[in-house]
Amino acid sequence: MKIMNYITNESVMLFKKWQGTNYAIFNSLNRYVRIGMLSAIYFTFLGYGQTFAQTDTASVSKKIKLEEVKVSARRVPALYSEIGRVVTVITKKDIDALPVQSIDQLLEYVAHVDVRQRGVLGVQSDVSVRGGSFDQVMILLNGINITDPQTGHHNLNLPVDFQSIERVEILEGPGARIFGSNAFSGAINFITGSNKDSQINANIMAGEHGLYKLGASGTIAHGKTKSFLAVNKSATDGYIANTDFEIYNLFYHGQLHTDSEHLELQLGYTDKGFGANSFYTARYPNQYEQTKTTFASLSFASKTKNPIKSSVYWRRHHDRFELFRGNQGAATWYTHHNYHLTDVLGANLNTVVSSAIGKTAMGADIRSESIWSNVLGFDMKDTLKTPGEKDGFFTKKHNRTNTSFFLEHSYTLNRLSVSAGLMSNLNSDLGWSFDIFPGFDISYWLNNNLKIYGSINKSLRMPTYTDLFYSSSTIIGNPDLKPEEATTYEGGIKFKNNGGISANISAFSRRGKNMIDWGKPSDAPDGTKWTTSNINDINTFGLEAVINANLQEMIKGQHFLQGINLSYSWLNQDKSLPSGYDSRYVFDYLKHKFSGSLQHALFWDMHASWAVQYQDRMGSYGEYDISSGTEITKDYEAFCTLDLKLTWQKPRYTLYAEATNLLDKKYTDIGQLYQPGRWVKMGVKIHLSL
């Protein structure tokens, strides 16, 4: 691999193609990329490293006795108490208390987060926020954008196991001016390696259906350095036919702290192979998929009055999808599996300037997304052998580059906090034209316990490669799609007191335009394919109420009841279409969602955690009968599940047993794929300080 050549001409820089195979790591930049206003070295090595965890020690928040939770719903560092947005923080203590063994199970307990599990225990799930689609949420790992450009189905393919997650932070609502394009309806950041002391941890879990999970991690903290390493494997025979899986994870997170700088290095790899029973169509229940994700990032932050933050990162995702597993029972027309390889290469920059009138953040982000496939993209002149696949060949490819510039100013005066900013976005697929996406939020403490807040933000989402290019016997993509855009208005009130109660009530209205939909003219002849277009507008309105209570603080002197958490969300959507046009899109959002959990003591060192879920989904799905070859339309039915976890905790080890879907309820998250019934698991966690 040759060193990258670059040419600078005043404010314009040209990156040239890297030497190597056509799917080499840096071939993401397989044509000239023009970047205005930044020099090459400064942008690459001092690009901004956006994270959720920042703080402001001069904040007025200390005066009103609120917990100083570090979050980022702005580009300017701010405390949780200053934010005029809805940000949910899930701590390690919360994670350990809940009866969950995967990231998707954990997210189920967040209001206005919709998790539709296609496979159990983190195999594959679609996640959306506030009634958006699974393509409209940005996923970050320690502040680095790892969203998949091929399809949102792969967004939760994190190169790290659930046991290594120390904290999750969810921004509900648009985040374009903070994170850039594709933070359309929300953003979720997973944080690892936050332990400050050297330690070794191990986890062994086993359950019904041949389920097991083995994992070990270690943190070595020495002087100014800290290293976190984790390795995990999990597998099951499946709860019904063709739902088996095998997952491997390897992850490293290193940190170096000096008096003036902070460096972070992340390296991760995950390999998932799983039976995909009815994942994408119930007509072929013997589907199979294998995905491999490789990830690396390097971040830098200066500890100065006007700090500079930066990161460079790379993510490769390899996907093989088999409509007929191992070609068993394959139809005569089925000639090959689907192969996809995506490379994402990015760098970013952020700096904050303090003055008497507040803090101003300025930054930029560049992200190159490439795909090689035998289904998605434009035809290649020559075919390429698919790496690691005996019979796979790439026949199509595409590349696009997105560049964003950010400007934001925040000001806090006594109980008032205001922030306004904008993102300017350019994309190679759109001819490098500028589009502006502004935002504004404000919050005010009425007293020491009560805050009101509101915001207006505009956001966009670039089409995925599946939107642009996917085709089959009944549908065809559209390479000329425009980005989806939306303007969101939200407001609410937050309450917190010293008696152990915190609560939030909020409402939002999102007005979406150029929304991507599958459709065709009503008078189209039989056999006309459905195609993607920006034909419709969708308006979404939602309400949310959350209350958390520390019962030991509320009821002094008792130790049995520990905590209770309740949340409820409600959504409504309407869509406008031109006359004479049929839409294939079916509203299948969560109309009502209720989540609750209760933690209490039992005896000795034993504790119990109960969790309940109620979901009522709009829309319908086709239930296919293989024997008769017929399909009937069924409405989604509301369901309620109950989970239980028992924990016996000692300083060096923890024993636990849990039962999910304790009432053995039959239900489906998506389509005809019914979720597991009652599933019992048991395990032990070992914790050793060094």
UniProtKB/TrEMBL annotation:
Main location: membrane
MF terms (GO), sorted A to Z: siderophore uptake transmembrane transporter activity
Subcellular location(s) per record: Cell outer membrane
Topological relation to the membrane, as annotated: Multi-pass membrane protein
Record key words, sorted: Cell outer membrane, Membrane, Receptor, Signal, TonB box, Transmembrane, Transmembrane beta strand, Transport
CDD domains: ligand_gated_channel (cd01347)
Annotated Pfam families: Plug, TonB_dep_Rec_b-barrel
Protein name: Iron complex outermembrane recepter protein
Claim: Transmembrane helix is one of the keywords in the record: no
TonB-dependent receptor-like beta-barrel domain segment(s): 242-662
